[in-house]
Amino acid sequence: MSGGSPTPHAPLRLGMVGGGAGAFIGAVHRIAARLDGEFQLVAGALSSTPEKSRASAEALGIARAYDDYLAMAKGEARRKDGIDAVAIVTPNHMHAGPAIEFLKRGIHVICDKPLTATMAEARKLAKVASTADALFVLTHNYTGYPMIRQARAMVAAGEIGRLRLVQVEYVQDWLTEAAEKAGSKQAEWRTDPERSGAGGATGDIGTHAYNLACFVSGLTPEALAADLSIFVPGRALDDNAHVLLRFEGGARGMLWASQVAPGNENGLRLRLYGDKGGLEWAQEDPNYLWHAPFGEPRRRITRNGAGAGPEAGRVSRIPPGHPEGYLEGFANIYAEAARAIRAHRKGEPAPEDVVFPTLADGLAGMRFVEACVQSSRRNAGWVTL
Amino acid sequence: MSGGSPTPHAPLRLGMVGGGAGAFIGAVHRIAARLDGEFQLVAGALSSTPEKSRASAEALGIARAYDDYLAMAKGEARRKDGIDAVAIVTPNHMHAGPAIEFLKRGIHVICDKPLTATMAEARKLAKVASTADALFVLTHNYTGYPMIRQARAMVAAGEIGRLRLVQVEYVQDWLTEAAEKAGSKQAEWRTDPERSGAGGATGDIGTHAYNLACFVSGLTPEALAADLSIFVPGRALDDNAHVLLRFEGGARGMLWASQVAPGNENGLRLRLYGDKGGLEWAQEDPNYLWHAPFGEPRRRITRNGAGAGPEAGRVSRIPPGHPEGYLEGFANIYAEAARAIRAHRKGEPAPEDVVFPTLADGLAGMRFVEACVQSSRRNAGWVTL
Amino acid sequence: MSGGSPTPHAPLRLGMVGGGAGAFIGAVHRIAARLDGEFQLVAGALSSTPEKSRASAEALGIARAYDDYLAMAKGEARRKDGIDAVAIVTPNHMHAGPAIEFLKRGIHVICDKPLTATMAEARKLAKVASTADALFVLTHNYTGYPMIRQARAMVAAGEIGRLRLVQVEYVQDWLTEAAEKAGSKQAEWRTDPERSGAGGATGDIGTHAYNLACFVSGLTPEALAADLSIFVPGRALDDNAHVLLRFEGGARGMLWASQVAPGNENGLRLRLYGDKGGLEWAQEDPNYLWHAPFGEPRRRITRNGAGAGPEAGRVSRIPPGHPEGYLEGFANIYAEAARAIRAHRKGEPAPEDVVFPTLADGLAGMRFVEACVQSSRRNAGWVTL
Amino acid sequence: MSGGSPTPHAPLRLGMVGGGAGAFIGAVHRIAARLDGEFQLVAGALSSTPEKSRASAEALGIARAYDDYLAMAKGEARRKDGIDAVAIVTPNHMHAGPAIEFLKRGIHVICDKPLTATMAEARKLAKVASTADALFVLTHNYTGYPMIRQARAMVAAGEIGRLRLVQVEYVQDWLTEAAEKAGSKQAEWRTDPERSGAGGATGDIGTHAYNLACFVSGLTPEALAADLSIFVPGRALDDNAHVLLRFEGGARGMLWASQVAPGNENGLRLRLYGDKGGLEWAQEDPNYLWHAPFGEPRRRITRNGAGAGPEAGRVSRIPPGHPEGYLEGFANIYAEAARAIRAHRKGEPAPEDVVFPTLADGLAGMRFVEACVQSSRRNAGWVTL
Fold first, then answer.
1. CATH of A12-134 among 3.20.20.140, 3.40.718.10, 3.40.50.720, 3.90.1150.10
2. ipTM reported for the complex, 2 dp
3. In what ranges is there compositional bias, type Basic and acidic residues (chains A, B, C, D) (predicted)?
4. What pLDDT, in 10s, does the model give residues C224-234?
5. N or C: which end of chain C has fewer CB within 10 A?
């Protein structure tokens, strides 16, 4: 990473739970983990059956294949060269179980979002984590984008003044039709309350939008009012969420999460306005941050380019004009985790500039989903967060 | 206009109420009225005092200057060569009075939006209009954009299927600071409940967004929940509105109107999604309509270009790639009005393809503002429309 | 226009040569002439035969129809209320003849581009114009765009430093196939050397690009090397031009004009780079000018918005965010002409800030076409301008 | 990679020449090599002195550090577990030497572009390569972008018809001022004829543009005419190149390479037009390909999205809407190389769908630079390619 001198350390040892053949997010985690050479994947319990797990591990060239996560947690904890960290990339209902087992054994956890399928699981996990001698990192990966770091730094520095408005949306179209009935494994579990939890679009992408809005704005949400919809007949979970937000200090916002808006792929977009200026960013064009100081022309700050500060530069790898993307942003979460883990090894706190989403963010996301569902049941009445 | 053969008719005679020196919208109406050669401005009561009115009329080369609108209504009604129509471009509280006087005398009215400052005035005006032998045209000018006509035709033809989502926003920044205390006449009356009515951003631009969403979608709104804010201290009317919408038939929407979002000038943006596709349009780049049939690449339809139909072509003047803008869209309202007025002269109904916003739209806009205020007072509870 | 107080003058009287039924540019001139209320079209010789001319005039409601331009020049010159100016909107080979007849009689000429079909005609016209007591205005209309005025002012003020690079292109697709054989009148005369002159794309749109580059940069072209192509079989004139440019003082440039580039409508785009910054503008999105001071983020200056100066504001009519387009830019040429004509009436020079393309620009354009053809015949060898 | 099942192979062993501390492109190669887990970096001669080389290797955790490339070639060739391939990431004048030494010993070479500093070196290298039992891969990395593969496939399939126009540009601004005198190592060697060769912008980025145009169009260039400039005083090599291109079969093109255009970072942009349609792509927004079938609206094809074919999908890793960037495109070159190397191991030809730039591309690039320089010396006369 630019600015930082490479260090002569060996890669950290990583295990993975979930992410076998056909899984989308497992492959992403694997690339993210190795992109900066910080992690080496050496152990896995990748599928729901021992056979599939072993086959997947072999296919991926992973040294140590386990039948299941418990065997892996126990096995690795016993080894001298056991894994430093585990990536949990299963459907939501399978987050808490493994996370607890690894945390209990002092193995750091890098877990996909949302935190869990249910609030009960989330609380249980939180309790274990609070006493564990291991880190918990939640891959709200969009916080890893350099221009998101830039935006956060600018807000914190007061460059857009006192915040008034937070407009965030995450818009997709892949569930416009009943993909869950047409053989899409991704669609199946993501629309299944047993595996996903109480939120559909809310949980799957709404939590990302919510997390990003909070991460960049630094604001504390106070209450929300949500109008959740199920547009595709037969679906059990919301595929569209319209949410009003109120923040401490008086800022207000809107959050829109949809999986039924044709023409949108991963339209995560954040717009923040204060009394001195505005910031706008879109995930599909992530190397730019638009800054409009009130009364001046809007300017385009480019990643690592003129106007971008050290917070963006530190998590950039290449010069401006050469686009970095989703995988690089995701890898930044892993790189931050690596820095924290290495510090932890030495009994030190993570370096001050290390930033990653934590269990607290995960709980906030769970509360967001829960509140959306509550509000929607009460006809979009306000629910305190 | 393309497709239509020019006709050898003389321009219609137009009068104007309001629009004297310093007014923004008066000049817009004048250009819109003459752009297609359909109207000639021959009479005016342009300002609040007889002296200013006459001076403004003289400066603009208007033949017949009146002291006030009543004198003008009476005077013109008496003349053989009296005006065919009057443009009312005063602040909101001064719409109903003149509109009623002209309508009563059979003079067509082209009135700026919102309809009036109060619902009481609106009802009174509606009553008069219902029995008058004259047309009432409300300049929700954005409905005049060719690609808005295109979008409307595509929705009506079922090209995006059954509608699910209506996302509309109108975002500005000019009231980010207290311009009304810094000498801006525009800001003064627009933030003054006496002159604007109960809505701030809601009335000034929210009504445009609301009207446009309904115009294009063809949907009937059922209820709304609104969270209105006043961010600039000392202001009496909302400068930001967050609104949830529900439509008959199950579609849902969000409407955002803001005058305090730095970096936004006239960010009116409409996005519609159905079960077969999506449409997206932005006023600041109005010559394009984005159409995403579900499962296909999104395509850019250009005004008068490939893929654009007769509804757009009829209100276009020049080839694609040569941008038309706000004034042309505004002029289309006048051109439609002219067609209707000419038909009325012959005792005929307006041609079937003539489209313009009417008193019903104005009442709907008033109800929108009223409902927003009611809802916001009830902590964003739902209000039936 | 913003900033300027409206004056109580009557419209100037305008005649038109050409522009009958089916002509594209005639309708544009008529709208441009009346948009600001500066001209009233009162006389015309609109078509190639007396019958058609009269029919067109009647259809357009033009008071005085003439059989041909000579009759009109003579007739109007005799009248006390004769036309102040004439718009010549015929194909290129019919520019010089009428222009000379009107100029000779002291009637101002507003002529479409390119100046003429042949250099001989151009010289003849120039000779007459040099002694005529009348103005000659060439409608290189793109110079009327506010952000082009803004760019020109910024270059002149040194804001991008010493100029190094001028990249200009005007790209269309409408002649990708042999439209001239498929009944398109526009295509017929524009691909016909008898009516268009020696240049195809070069003359029709290359001259616009060339003029715009010179207008904004203020540079004097020194030499060019051109590679002209005819891609559509059977066509007599170039439909694509690749041109290298050298300017006095050392700046260099590229000009690309094409009518066979599918997906492009009127892609006129200008990019200028100096040792202190860059400017970029595109006609299809004309309300923005991109300014990149070297080493700083690029910024978007909007018409009439923050960062735009008086040169843009003077020729703008409405607030930023409300797009103006092609017709407004074209109308600015007419508005400038009106100011110059009114000054001429009083025996005064045009106001200092009046800017419009003149006969000198027309001659430069003719020389550009001639040089392109010469260069291309010599295998893209350099030709001094 | 999507569509392909992961295989249980161990990573290939990679060495690196150059790429020590402070080098930009070395870090890029390292990430690209490991991104898909296809290569493991195990040996290096990373700097110009033995001391620096060893320090860099240690800092990067590279197992086997060598004093220089010759020692490395010899040493690795002797080892049973010697490297499979070497990445050469030195300045241009240091490409041929190491490439020859490794090729001679049957070690595959992955070399940065341009091929060499001089044509003589290039020929020498080509001679060695032609008889070596090892592959030579040139990292014209932009050919690795999925949407470039998509464009190439569409052209090959005739989707835009017979090609007429190839417009390509690569525009930067980082040499607008004399960075080479201000301490930039990158600028120093890139503006130094001893280390870069005869081309400045021409060699550094012009070769990329030229290669990309040929790669996608499939056309064979026939001749060029180049106008090279040095705008920054004291510079020895061109910092701007204006080039006209002619291709076999009659297509023509323009190529613009500049390092002095403020506001441009890595503006590599390719536009191709045939008699049936057009394609447009920009490196700074690489996940989209614009396709305009003549007479239809232009459409935006997204990487891995609707309308994208297997050629793009095969080199994509993640779903559409999640942007991939420069590093992923670069990694695709490495992944293709890995597939070819693995096939070579088995004595098989590379799979048919494997595509990477070769020595022939390198020679073509060298000839491009040479021809540009020749042409420019002859005042932009045509030079046959």
1. 3.40.50.720
2. 0.95
3. 182-195
4. 999 999 999 99
5. N
